[in-house]
Amino acid sequence: MFALMMKKPSVLLVLALVFATTANAQGYSTELISHSTLAMVTGDLDNDGDIDVVTGGLRNLVWYVNDGTGTFEKRTLSLDAQEAQCVLLNDLDEDGHMDIIVADMAVNRILYYRNNGDNTFDRLFLFGSTGGASGVAVADMDGDGDKDLVCAAFTANKVYWLRNNGGFAFTQLDIATGLTGVAHVQAHDYDGDGDVDVAAAVQTAGAIRLFRNNGSGTFTNELLANMTTPRRLVQDDIDLDGDMDLLYAGASGMGYFRNTGTTFTQQSVTTYSGIRGVGAGDLNSDGYKDLLVADYGEDMLYWRGYSANGTFNTAGITLDTDLDFASLVMAADLDGDGDQDVVAASSADVRAYINPATTGFEPRPMNRILTDARGVCHGDFDNDGDVDMMAVGLLYVNWYVNDGGGNMEARIVREGPFRLLVSGGVDMKAADLDGDGDMDAVLTERSGNKVSWIENQGGGNFVKRLVANLTNAYSCDVVDYDNDGDLDVVASNLNGGFIYWYQNNGSEVFTQFTVNTTYPQPYEVRSFDHDNDGDMDVLSACFSNLQQVGKLVLHRNMGNGSYQAFEIDQSAPGITSCFWVDMDGDGDKDIVATMGDQDRINWYESSGGAFPAYTERVLAYGVGYATYVVATDLDGDGDVDVVASALDDRSTDWYENDGSEVFTRHLLARNTPNAQFVGAGDINGDGTPEIYASCAETEAVHLYRRTGINYEVVVGPEPQPCHDLFVSEMVHYPGDIARAIEIYNPRSVPVDLTGYALRFYPNGEHTYDATLLSGVIEPGDVRVYVAPNYATNINTYADQITDLWFDGQETIVLVNGDTPIDVIGRVGDFFEEDNYWFNNGVGTFYTVLVRKPTIDHGDPDGTDPFLPDVEWIAYPVNDYSHLGSHTSPCAAVCTPTIALSTSEGPYCAGDVITISATTTNAGTTPSYQWTVNDQPVGGNSASYTINGLTGNALVRCTLAGNATCATATSLQSEPLLIELNTVQAPVASITGNVLSASPVPNATYQWYFNGGVLPGGNTANVTITVPGDYHVVATVAGCASPASNTITYEITTGLLMHDAPGIQLVPNPTDGPLTIRGAANVQMVELWNAAGQKVLEQRGTSLDLSPFAPGLYTVVLRTGTERWQMRVVRQ
C-alpha cells in the first residue's frame, strides 16, 4: 500500500529582520544570446584599432567585440536601459576611451556608460528628461571647449540642449517646443558660421526641421520639408563637397537634403513608404558615397550607387531579402581590409555583411530575437562535440550554435529554405527522439493545440513533425515510458487539466494514453521512476483555479496502464513548476517546487524506500511569484543548488546550498520582466554548469556564465573626525513619491564635488549604479539631492535633481574617486520582500533618517553589520524639516593646511634657494620640522635655505600646530621637488686656428682665453690668432656647464729656433716702432705672423710694424750660426 505522509512546513532559510548575512557569492556574467534591437552605433570601443558594434533595445545594451576580421563576440553590458531608442559612442570625459550615451525613452532619462579602459563600464545617470528621451547628439553647443548634449523629447514635444557646466552637471535649455513627436536629432555646423546647428525629425507632426544657431544662445527654426512620419535622420557628406548633408527615411519615402553651405535642397530618391533605415558609404570603392537602404516593409537590405550628377541608381544591389523589419543600416570597415562593409539591424536581427566575399557580400548573423521567448533547452544539435541550445517562442524557433568555446551564435531554425513555424510555443525539451544519433527537440504549441517534435536531419536542417494534437498543449517531458528502447513523450493540456503520454512505436508514430483527467491546470509535468518499480511515474504542478487550490500531485504508474494520483502537497496555491532531485544527498529523489501565490520555493524531503513519504520544507521565502525551477550542483561543492525565475521580482536567481540545505539567494539579473523557463547545463565544457533562462516580455534568451569573480570588498581608509564629507540625511517615501539624500561638509573649507559620486548597490548585489555629484559645498553646509518623479514638495529643498536608485534595501556608498568614505547599509546583504535594515525601531524603509548630531564622520566600512539606530534618528516619512541644514560637532572645526613655495626655477648647481611654508589654522605657536631627501635639516622656522644646490632636493615640512579648532595637530606638507638643471660639458677641439664646441641641446657658449673671457667668443665656433690656452662653457636655461677640456694654441715658423736670452723688444706691445736691445752679431731680422708666414726681412735693430695688422708676431734674429726668436704684439 502506498503510504503518503504530510508534515507541517519546516523553515530552513532564515533571514534576519535586522540585517542579512553576507554570502561569498560566486559571480555570474549575463549574456543575451537573443534580444531585441532598437538602436545601433559603430566605433572602436576597446581602442584595438577595429570597428565594434553596440546595440540597445528593450532592457539591453550589447557590445559586439570585433576580433579584427569582422567576426564578433557578444558581450552584454547592461539590462537597465528599458527602451534604448538612441545609442552613441563619444569620449565624453575625454580620457581617450569611447563612452556610451543612451537615450532611454520609456523612463525619460539619458544614461552614460563611462568606459574605464579595461573593458568595464560604470553606468551613470546623466540627466532625467521630462518627456520621452528619443534621440541624443553630442556637440560643443556654446563653444566653451566642453561637450554638451542635444536631446529629442518625443512626448514632451521639444528639442533641447544640455549645457555642460563641468563635473557632469548639466543645465537644460530649450531649442524649440511644440514639435509633436520629435524622434531624432543631429548636430553640426551646417552653415559653416562657426557654431553648431541642430536638425530634427519630427515624426508625429511630419517634418524635418533645421535650427540654426545664432551664436547668442538662440536658434532660428527653419522648415526643410513636410513629410509623413520621418523615422530616421542621418548626417553624411553625400556629395563630398565638404559640408554635411542630411539623409532621411519615412512614410513619405527616402532621400537626402543636399547642403550647399547656406541652404538645403531636398533630393528625393523614392516615395515608397516602407523604408525606415538609411545610411551611406563607398561600397564599390569608386570614390563616391553610395546609399544604403533598410526596407522595413519588404524585409530587404540593399544599396544604390551614387553618380557624379547627384543621383542614385534606381536598380539597387540587394544584400538581404530576409531581414525582418529592417530598420537600421550603416557602413564601416569591419574586417580591416580597406573597403566598406555593412552592418544592419532590426527589432529582430543584427547582421554584418562583409565586402567582398567570393560571391558578393557575405552575411554574418550576430543576433536573432525570439518573440515571446518561452521554452529553452540544450544539446549538441550540430554533432560537433560541444553543447548548443534551442528555444521556442510565439512563432519561431531559434537554435544557438556553440563555436566550441561557449560563444553562441543565434540562428533561425529552418525547414528547407523557409523558417520553421510554430503557433504559440511554450515548453521545449531536447532528446534524440528518433534514435539516429543527433539531437532532436520536443515542444508544445498552445495556440496550435499540438505537441510537435523537430527532427534534426543534420547539417543545420530541421523538419517539424507531429506527436499528437492536444488542446492547450503546455508542458512536456521525454523519457522511455514503456522500456522498449525508444523515447516516448508526456504532455499536459493546461485548461482542460489532462495529462497524456504518447507511446513511440519506434518509427515516431505515437499512440496516446491517459495519465490524469482530474487535477486542473497542470503547468508542468516531470517524469521519473519514483518508487523504483521499473516504470515511469509522472509528477505534476497543478495550478489553482476557482474550484480548488493548487496541488503538487504524483501520478504513480501502476504497471497495468493505469495511474494512481497521490497529493504530495494538498495546498500549493499558485504552484507552477516542479523538479525531481536528490536535494539532501541521501540517495533518494526529493522534489523542488515553486509556489507563485505564496512567493516561495518549497522542497519536499523523501523518506526513501519503495513507498516514500514527503516532508514539506521551505527553501526560500519572499520570491516574488516564483515561477519555474530546476536544481543541480552549480558551484561544484558537491551539493544541489537551485535556479528559479520570479515574475514579480522580474528576476532569475540562484540559491546556494551550504551543504545542510540552508540556502542563500543570489540575484543573476534584474530587469527581466516576465521571466520564464530556466535551465542549467555545461555549455562551455569547463565541467561546471551554466544557467540559462527565457524572458517573454523582452523577447530574450539569457545565458549566465560563472565568472569566478571574488568581489572587491567595499572598505575605505580609517576616517578622520570632521575631515571628509558624509551622508547626513536620507528620505525614502516609496512609490517614487520622495527620495532624497543630503550630504554634509564638516570641513572649514569649501569642497568641490567633482570626483564624488553616490553608488547604489541593489539588494544582494555586488555591482552598482552611480550618480555623479556636482557643485560646491561650503564649510559646514549641506547639499540636497532629490530624485525626479517626486509627488510632494520635497523638490523645493533640492540643490540638484538627479536619479537616486535606492528603495530601503539598497546599500548607498558615498565615494571620492574610487575610495568609499561613507557606507549606508552593507554591500551584498539580501532581503526577502518587505524586509530591510531595522533595529530598535529604526529602519531604512518608508522613513526619514537624520544622522545623530554626535556623529563627526562617515562609516567607510562596507563589510560590517549595519544597525540603523546606532548613528541615525528616524522621523516620519513626510517630515522634511531637517533637510537643508545639519548639526554636527564639526561646526567649529577648522582644518590646518601647509603649502611650500620657493622662487621659480630652473635651479643651477651652487644656487642658494629659500623655501617658505605658508600655513592656515596652525595656531599661535606652531613648530616646523624640515627634511631634504627624507633627512632632517634646518631649525624650527617657517622657511629653510639650501646654501649651494648640489643635486635634486625633495623638500617636506611637518607642521605641528596648536589651534584649538584643528582636526589634527600634526600635518605634513605635500613634497616640493627642487630639480637640479644639469648641463653637459661641451668638448672643445681645433682645426687650424678655428676652435669648435660639441653640440649641447638648447645651449649658448662662452670661450675663455688664458682664464679670462675671450672677447667675441660667444658662438660654438671661433677663429683665433693669439697662441694660448682656450676652453669653453655651455649655458642652458641660465645654468652653466662645467668647463670643457683645454686647447693650447701655438704658432710655428717651421724653423728650429731658440729663445734669445738678454735681448729685449721695446716697446712691446707696440703700435708700430720696435727696437731690438742687447742684440750682438745680428746679421738679419725676420718678422713672422700668427699664420706662420714671413712678412718682413731686413738688417738693423729698428723695425716698423705699422704696415701690419694688429696681432701676435714672432721676431727672428739670425747670427752666423744660430737663430733666436721673440714675440711681440702689434696693437
In short:
With 1131 residues, the protein is mainly beta. The chain contains one helix and 97 strands. The strands form 25 sheets. It has a six-stranded mixed beta sheet with strand order 67-66-61-60-72-73. Strands 1-52-51-50-49 form a five-stranded mixed beta sheet, with no helix packed on it. Strands 76, 77, 79, 80 and 81 form a five-stranded antiparallel beta sheet that branches.
**Rough shape?**
elongated
**Average pLDDT score:** 88
Any idea what the radius of gyration is? 43 Å
| pLDDT < 50 runs, ≥5 residues | 1-25, 1053-1057
Number of helices: 1
Number of strands: 97
Largest sheet: 6 strands, mixed
Strand content: over 45%
Strand order, main sheet: write it out.
67-66-61-60-72-73
Instruction: Tell me the span between the first and last alpha carbons.
Output: 142 Å
Question: For this entry, what is the oligomeric state of its chains?
Answer: single chain
Please state the structural category. Answer: mainly beta
Helix proportion: under 10%
